[in-house]
Write a structure and sequence with these properties.
Length: 208
């Protein structure tokens, strides 16, 4: 999916199939500060990303395009442009109106929202018409859920995926870290036919 112009239908289906999605931040704009908003790029993450003024809005659970943030806006006289919005579950939103004033578009982009199946406050794609969160509409249609979850935005300290330290934000592509919590899992599966009973035992060991 890391393409300049991904197929929108494929991207939409890809995001809808995921049980966890992290929001990314928006791009900054050069130039002087303007009344419309700050020139800094705003962080992604959380259930709703932070908005930058009245026209550049953070993605949330029901607003913003699935998996993609809006492009920045540029003036007709090439006198500066706004920062692009970050993607995530639902990307940042650019509603800047057309204007030819010098420096009008010098405003940073916003980030996208995050989604975790089972996290209260999230709204899954199969409940996209719901306007208010509840215990059920956060759950992905697959039925897979996470428990004891926490969503952290790009301005907060978060555990580093590389070691036991903490970082603020992450530069570059997204990254995940999975830690095994059990030494082993022993399960039994039984298959029954008309004449025989088959039993298989599976053991998954924690790698060292």
């Amino acid at each position: 999916m890391n393409k300049d112009n991904p197929d929108q239908n494929v991207l939409k289906k890809s995001i809808e199939s995921r049980i966890i999605v992290a929001g990314s931040g928006g791009g900054a704009s050069s130039g002087d500060e303007r009344p419309l908003g700050k020139i800094d790029g705003f962080p992604g993450g959380n259930i709703s990303a932070i908005s930058n003024g009245a026209y550049v809005l953070g993605g949330n659970q029901i607003s913003g395009k699935l998996g993609i943030g809006d492009d920045g806006s540029s003036s007709s006289n090439n006198e500066g442009a706004s920062g692009g919005c970050g993607s995530g579950y639902r990307g940042g939103i650019n509603k800047l109106p057309s204007n030819s004033d010098s420096g009008y578009f010098q405003i940073g982009g916003t980030g996208g929202s995050s989604y975790i199946s089972g996290h209260f406050g999230c709204i899954s794609p199969n409940h996209q018409n719901d306007l208010v969160e509840n215990k059920q509409n956060s759950i992905h249609e697959s039925g897979y859920i996470f428990t004891d979850t926490k969503i952290i935005n790009g301005q907060e300290k978060m555990p580093s995926p590389y070691n036991d330290s903490f970082i603020i934000g992450n530069i570059g592509n997204g990254i995940g870290r999975i830690t095994f919590l059990y030494a082993y899992i022993n399960s039994c599966v039984i298959f029954k036919s008309n004449y025989y009973l088959f039993m298989f035992s599976f053991t998954a060991l924690n790698p060292t």
